[in-house]
Amino acid sequence: MYRNKGRFWCKLLGVPRKIILDCDPGHDDAIAIMLALASEELEVLGITTVHGNVGLERTTRNALVVREVLGKSVPIYAGADRPLVRDRISAEAVHGVSGLEGPHLPTPTGQVEPQHAVHFIIEQVLRYPGEVTLVPVGPLTNIALAMRLEPRIIPQIREIVLMGGSIDIGNWTPSAEFNILCDPHAAKIVFGAGVPLVMMGLNLTHQTIAHPERVARFRALGTRVGNFVAELLEFFREHHVQRYKWDGAPIHDACAVAYLLRPGLFKTAMFNVEIEANEGLAFGRTVCDYWRVTGRQPNCEVGLEVDVDGFYNLLLERIARYA
Amino acid sequence: MYRNKGRFWCKLLGVPRKIILDCDPGHDDAIAIMLALASEELEVLGITTVHGNVGLERTTRNALVVREVLGKSVPIYAGADRPLVRDRISAEAVHGVSGLEGPHLPTPTGQVEPQHAVHFIIEQVLRYPGEVTLVPVGPLTNIALAMRLEPRIIPQIREIVLMGGSIDIGNWTPSAEFNILCDPHAAKIVFGAGVPLVMMGLNLTHQTIAHPERVARFRALGTRVGNFVAELLEFFREHHVQRYKWDGAPIHDACAVAYLLRPGLFKTAMFNVEIEANEGLAFGRTVCDYWRVTGRQPNCEVGLEVDVDGFYNLLLERIARYA
Amino acid sequence: MYRNKGRFWCKLLGVPRKIILDCDPGHDDAIAIMLALASEELEVLGITTVHGNVGLERTTRNALVVREVLGKSVPIYAGADRPLVRDRISAEAVHGVSGLEGPHLPTPTGQVEPQHAVHFIIEQVLRYPGEVTLVPVGPLTNIALAMRLEPRIIPQIREIVLMGGSIDIGNWTPSAEFNILCDPHAAKIVFGAGVPLVMMGLNLTHQTIAHPERVARFRALGTRVGNFVAELLEFFREHHVQRYKWDGAPIHDACAVAYLLRPGLFKTAMFNVEIEANEGLAFGRTVCDYWRVTGRQPNCEVGLEVDVDGFYNLLLERIARYA
Amino acid sequence: MYRNKGRFWCKLLGVPRKIILDCDPGHDDAIAIMLALASEELEVLGITTVHGNVGLERTTRNALVVREVLGKSVPIYAGADRPLVRDRISAEAVHGVSGLEGPHLPTPTGQVEPQHAVHFIIEQVLRYPGEVTLVPVGPLTNIALAMRLEPRIIPQIREIVLMGGSIDIGNWTPSAEFNILCDPHAAKIVFGAGVPLVMMGLNLTHQTIAHPERVARFRALGTRVGNFVAELLEFFREHHVQRYKWDGAPIHDACAVAYLLRPGLFKTAMFNVEIEANEGLAFGRTVCDYWRVTGRQPNCEVGLEVDVDGFYNLLLERIARYA
Ligand SMILES: [Ca+2]
Ligand SMILES: [Ca+2]
Ligand SMILES: [Ca+2]
Ligand SMILES: [Ca+2]
Questions:
Q1: Mind listing the pLDDT tens digit for each residue in B206-230?
Q2: What are phi and psi of B236, to 5 degrees?
């Protein structure tokens, strides 16, 4: 595993941490974007988009929509419109046709950048060697393509903090979580790269259910963005009531950003995690050696528990910063 | 799935339930045998042995030893000495070289029956159509061979109540539990047979840790068999302290027998469970459709929770019946 | 690999070679039976039947039919009605609904033996240690079940001479030949058993096309059985004209028997052959290390070429012995 | 499958066909380069290099060396240094440590272009929509990366004519040919792209053995390049004598270029070819539906036979054009 010297200096000096948020909005992606852009601890170099919850055209438009709602100026780069090897899957059943059903969505006035997301990732990592943290909260296609197109970035990535996978049960198949299942081969590339890696999987994110009383707190902010979040969560809730009998939806993707802001909210441990990229019943599984029975080297810091109240307090505090 | 009329009559009339206990003793197998043979609710037609924790010669000898310790007269039949397709694995690291390390083991005076376990299973199921419950607490090789050698038994098996698998994390690989991993192809045959099936997997059996205070209760019985159990559990504990940081060993196999005696101690639900019998990271996994995302028909009643105190009370009460 | 002393004595003394012909008739199976039963070099201990070209009930009936046509008295034993692990496939498209379409089929007067084929195989191999050659020309389910039910037969089997597999292209998938594909797990057991093994695969059997002029030679015998063969081959031709654009069908299964009678007709070589028993594009492939690139030990004598005229002369000569 | 209008106009007007030769020199790659650069029918837009026979640094240097030997000015672009997903393999055992052992190799005076091969491929295909033929004679990593980084190129590629795969036996495993095995996932992307595809696999290229008398013809040209070819073939011969017992090496990669120059020398047919990208015994196999048993649509024109004398005459004539 690579060691990056930049890492420690930045922390010491209180310099905001440079991140690229790679996403497929998506309700929880939208909240992850809000959390990142509201936080002075992070310098969001750019938002990159990828196929996933819905097609690339829509995830990119949704990123523009969220930026519009927030009134922020971060650049947005569109990336891969399909997985590396497997056929594309998507999650309209969960996120609605647009990928962001629920609130009224304004027509974005801004534009997507002309540069490809993969080129943007490569450029930024090489520009700030050892300083850039990648935060993928969708399929890992962009990150994997960047690693293969320009392998010199691999030792220069400070860290990858991702939402994806599960150490127990999947959500899209019994074995696999949606983000990883969307592109298991990309995941195999990323998990095998030797980059410091933090995984926030379903086993953790399923602890962050947005119960109605939590949703009410966002609405109680009395702000436009607070209402927007509440409406996102109310739509997102429906699927989870039906599928899981839960009284709300987990805010998966925000966990990865929250970990960067308040690692102390999370209990994690290092494990070996391998990706099953062969087709079959476990296609797309993040095979986590929880009991350390394989003798394989730990390669991933895995989120195990989150202080859910702390998580929601952080989220509320930051969302409250928007008008 | 087959319906067996015998099933309901027996219950109604309080006739003891006919079972064949198929095992690979093994510490927890030994306790499962004790529990079964002490219980008037069960008529143990025979004990059949199979390769598994240790080689067939030793699991068979261990069955004889346990019968000797208990002073019971149930017939014992040796079965398959190797898995159907894959190479044999074993668990001397957990159960010791003999497979039953810990207590002093008497030299058995009795003999194994000349009939092959597979023939015994076939014979009994055809003799008592719809009445025989199979209780496999080792690799499923014998049951699978019986089903393929004489497919007419399949609709005549009352139920299969097995220890094996897991709905979350495995113990022999990150994906697989030992019994199923020993012979995934046999498991695929059994789980695909359409027979009423109850699975007590690690997700449940790991709830039954024999803490020192629980072990002390067996010792406090002041009986020879109580001491024997305590010594089994003390040896069995070592591996689990080291591997899992638990203060004792789970008594996996006894869960299957306890379920037959007191189903009310167990919370279960019907799921689709498929076996991954293709080699790879998930080889031997019991892929359980916990969130019902596959559309595949439920084929297995899966143990989810056990009333652990109730379980130990039952075990104590029954072990206390031995001298 | 096991060495059998019986092997060499028998040859020396001109004692007929004891064989069990395990088959799924099937047109070419029927001709293999005729060839075997007409040959004084072979002592056919019994014919065992297995699911395959058509269901077990029909393959067994067809064996009875062929015995009836030939007026012979060899015992027939029914075996496995389904593969070990995978779902059953069959080949009515090639062999017709009955499995033996073409000639008029008499109603057999004889009966199948009550003993199961697997038990018969075990019994005979143990009765004549080192002397019995198994000749499977259908799916390998019976042989595999016998090996697992009674592993002591493994070192006592003189040799297995089978029809199945291919070193190049399959016939039921691009990768797999029908017999092996019917039960790849059984094939993996048999090819991994360490028994002397001869494989007559499609790469060889496709050399034995029964062109119309060859069929005419059978008809020209002017016998009932000669006509029966001709009618079998005429029906069997249809599928092969359509699928392969050949002017006749290969007589696959007779190659295995012919090899026992006249090994000099065949060019063979030792290779490592492994069975792909994992599902996927190569499921059921006999992976033959033709260029010796794997470093794996040769375990199979693979038929490469046959003197086709010699083969047909032998066949004609033997078929001519029947009325 | 996409239809490209450019295709037919070019042919009609005798405009040289625009190609990009994507290679991993490699002895036979070197000869493929020579053949392409000597031929007025082809406009070689550039040579792109990829990991394969040896590492990228060496394959790139070897491309520079060959250009130096030929005194040509085609631009050379370095591409991927590793496969998409699997670990890198290489073939020093066949091509020597440098990848081009045998002749004296001059120090190249020219430089590799700064642009990445993948970007060059994308740029050229988009610049000449429907006109560019890709000729990959190494692992398919560059082509696959280009397709995923810029999917708009896919319908604009005129054709892909590749050396790789086999319809029968592999050379690096029993199932797989080296180029495809180097990056099966890239191959799956390319074979699944819907682009017109021609595959020259081992089943064809193994017909082009450079027997000593053929090598002698190159030497007899009395030219520097003729000698260079002869020395390449003499070194390349060694491995093939040992492994295959052939009296020379096949000139695999030149077949793809020769097909573009004289398609009439080749017998081909359309088949469905799928890539096995799951690990196992058939990893990297080009599964060709030769007997059309799958019902899958043909997606590849597969080379079956080559007029070997015509092939060598063409090669001689073109090599003779160099000093
Ligand atoms: Ca997402
Ligand atoms: Ca057990
Ligand atoms: Ca047959
Ligand atoms: Ca090459």
A1: 999 999 999 999 999 999 999 999 9
A2: -60, -30
Q: Which residues of C touch B279 (CB under 8 A)?
A: 278
Cα–Cα distance for residue pair D188/D276, rounded to 1 Å: 8
Tell me the two tokens of residue A132.
């850039």
Query: Could you tell me what percent of chain B has a pLDDT over 70?
Result: 96
With CB atoms and an 8 Å threshold, state whether B280 touches A282.
yes
> Within an 8 Å CB–CB cutoff, is residue A213 touching chain B?
no
pTM value is 0.96
Rounded CA separation C304/D172 (Å): 21
Tell whether A118 is within 8 A of chain D (Cβ).
Answer: yes
Helices (H), B19-72: 27-37, 56-70
Largest Cα–Cα distance in chain B? Answer: 54
Which residues fall within 8 angstroms of residue C264, CB to CB, at 6 or more apart? none
What residues are paired with D76 via a beta bridge?
D47
Backbone φ/ψ region at D85: left (φ over 0), alpha (ψ -120 to 50), beta: alpha
**CB under 8 Å to C250, separation ≥6 — which residues?**
C28, C202, C205, C206, C207, C208, C209, C210, C240
Tell me: cis bond preceding B99? Omega within 30 of 0 counts. Answer: no
CA neighbor of C157 nearest in space, from C318, C294, C22: C22
Paired tokens of C206: 């496709």
Q: How far is CA C144 from the centre of its chain?
A: 15
Q: Are C168 and D168 an interchain contact pair (Cβ–Cβ within 8 Å)?
A: yes
The answer to whether A22 touches A138, Cβ cutoff 8 Å, is yes
Extract the tokens encoding B70: 């208990």
| Chain C residue nearest residue B148, CA to CA | C84
Confidence category of residue A5, pLDDT binned at 50, 70, 90: very low
CA separation (Å) from A68 to A24, A96, A161?
16, 20, 25
Phi, psi of C76 (to 5 degrees): -125, 135
Which two tokens mark B206? 């790991």
Helix (H, G, I), strand (E, B) or coil at B246: coil
Helix (H, G, I), strand (E, B) or coil at A40: coil
What DSSP line would sit under D151-204, residue for residue?
GGGGGGEEEEEEE---SS--SSSSS--HHHHH-HHHHHHHHTS---EEEE-HHH
Q: Is A168 a catalytic residue?
A: no
Helix (H), strand (E) at residue C121: helix C117-127
Q: Where does residue C26 fall: left (phi above 0), alpha (psi -120 to 50 degrees), or beta otherwise?
A: left
pLDDT-derived band at A1 (thresholds 50, 70, 90) equals: very low
Is B193 buried (19+), middle (13-18) or exposed (0-12) by CB count in 10 A?
buried
Asked if B189 is an interface residue toward chain C (Cβ–Cβ < 8 A), one would say yes
> What are the CA-CA distances from residue C292 to residues A228, C175, C187, D169, D205 (Å)?
66, 19, 21, 11, 19
- How many other CB atoms are found less than 10 A from the CB of residue C267? 12
Whether the bond between D26 and the residue before it is cis, its omega within 30 degrees of 0, is yes
Give the C-alpha separation, D187 to B164, whole Å: 40
CA dist C69 and C105 (Å) reads: 8
B14 has a pLDDT exceeding 90: no
- Cβ neighbours around A75 below 10 Å, total: 16
The pLDDT tens digits for B110-165 are 999 999 999 999 999 999 999 999 999 999 999 999 999 999 999 999 999 999 99
Quote ipTM for the complex.
0.95
Task: Please give the domain boundaries of chain D with CATH numbers for all domains.
Answer: 17-320 (3.90.245.10)
Among chain B residues, the shortest Cα distance to A276 is held by B281
Q: Are strands A17-23 and A42-49 parallel, antiparallel or unpaired?
A: parallel
